[in-house]
Specification:
heterodimer; A: 195 residues; mainly alpha; 75% helix; rod-shaped; B: 118 residues; 4 helices; globular
Chain lengths: 195, 118
């Protein structure tokens, strides 16, 4: 195996990791929306008249779900954007990629001219450059991926807690349903209008 | 082998930013560069500067001024700090700033051109 192949593999591994983080962001956004929607629906439709204790439990569940949801939103924004970097709250997470193939080919041709047409030496220089540039990109992308991976994993953990609490709200609804006040039978008097 | 002129510079890299990402601020760059001033005695480590146009360069930071950064270029680091150069000769070379500039052993860039430093 040539050295360049080894470094190229590492370079693509980091780019794959970036793609994997980006796709996990989509999943997290879906779950965030679902939990947010469920919380909103619960707060609107819950019957607060039934029992004071049930209300307290329900509101505590909603509050905790909301807290986990809020933390998840912050972590999601941190993974998705560079908004916290400006305030110095996060290290710079720029991604670097290799230049376009035609630019790399132009560079090789320039090296051939520089080496007076000696293609062997030019290729050696070119390979050395490619190894350098692959390694620089890999090193930079690794730092960015590591920081983003950490925040997306924390976001997922918080979403998991939010989901569990969100599901527990169902128990409050079940209590609400079973303790619903039954309508009292009403006495209907039929009166004869002729009397 | 007689080479034709200066060795061509590589095409650099493509920078991909996250949404709302603006790169490091000038003050963040200054702090980082000041922390990593090149130490001649211990052949201190160089940093890599990424410019906004995607150019990557190795640099031994000499001084950080208000708007500019003075540094040993990659070529300068290679020539001035190679192990077979004795200390006296190195001192002499380092004193002659004009030669260093003409041979592109040292250079300076605007802080505003810097995208990132690592």
């Amino acid at each position: 195996m040539e050295r360049i192949d080894f470094y190229r593999e590492l370079y693509y591994k980091e780019l794959e990791e970036k793609r994997s983080i980006d796709s996990e962001l989509n999943l997290s956004l879906t779950i965030l929306t679902l939990i947010g929607g469920w919380l909103n629906y619960s707060l609107i439709t819950f019957d607060y008249k039934i029992s004071g204790n049930a209300n307290v439990v329900f509101l505590a569940q909603c509050l905790l779900t909301g807290v986990f949801l809020l933390i998840s939103v912050v972590l999601f924004i941190h993974t998705f954007s560079g908004i916290f970097e400006k305030a110095g709250l996060s290290p710079p997470r720029t991604y670097l990629e290799l230049q376009l193939p035609n630019q790399l080919e132009n560079y090789y041709n320039e090296l051939v001219v520089y080496n007076n047409g000696d293609k062997g030496t030019a290729m050696e220089d070119y390979k050395a450059y490619l190894i350098d540039i692959h390694n620089l990109c890999t090193a930079r992308n690794k730092v960015s991926n590591r920081s983003r991976r950490m925040s997306i994993d924390r976001c997922k953990n918080n979403l998991g807690m939010g989901m569990v609490l969100g599901i527990s709200i169902l128990f409050s609804f079940a209590y609400n349903y079973t303790h619903k006040a039954k309508p009292e039978p009403q006495e209907i008097k039929i009166m004869n209008p002729n009397n | 082998m007689n080479h034709k002129g200066e060795k061509p510079k590589g095409p650099g890299v493509i920078i991909t930013k996250l949404p709302f990402q603006t790169g490091i601020t000038a003050s963040q760059a200054v702090n980082f560069l000041k922390k990593n001033l090149f130490d001649k005695q211990s052949n201190g480590h160089a940093v890599t500067i990424l410019l906004k146009d995607g150019t990557l360069m190795n640099a031994g930071i000499i001084d950080v001024n208000k708007d500019t950064v003075e540094f040993y270029t990659g070529k300068g680091l290679k020539e001035l700090f190679k192990s077979d150069l004795d200390d006296e000769k190195r001192e002499q070379l380092l004193k002659d700033k004009e030669t260093l500039l003409s041979k592109q052993y040292i250079a300076d860039i605007n802080l505003g051109d810097i995208e990132n430093v690592f």
